[in-house]
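Worked example 2:
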Amino acid sequence: LHLRRLARTQVSWSDAEHRADLQRLWGGVFAVDMPEGSLQMEVSPGWKDMGFQSNDPCTDFRAMGRLSLGCLSYMVRHFKARAARIVVDGTPKRDYPFGAVGVNIVAGAG
């Protein structure tokens, strides 16, 4: 029941917990902090480089909501080097849609 509720919870930049997980996701993959307080944090081509479909990852999380954000955030916290390698070592750039695949794996498990 709790997991279903998380899956239905829309991810939003205005939610402090969601924002923190999005920042961890970015920092875990790119190993640089997001610029605080700027639109560059919320809308950036870096999200597409990470494998999301748009410059704002919140739109991609609509399929599995907060649950998929939590799972991707967990991966970059506990398997940071692997997650970064998946995204950064892709040739050509954006070769592996890490963000979109992560959301779809969570959807498939549900």
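The radius of gyration is 13 Å. The chain has a mean pLDDT of 84.
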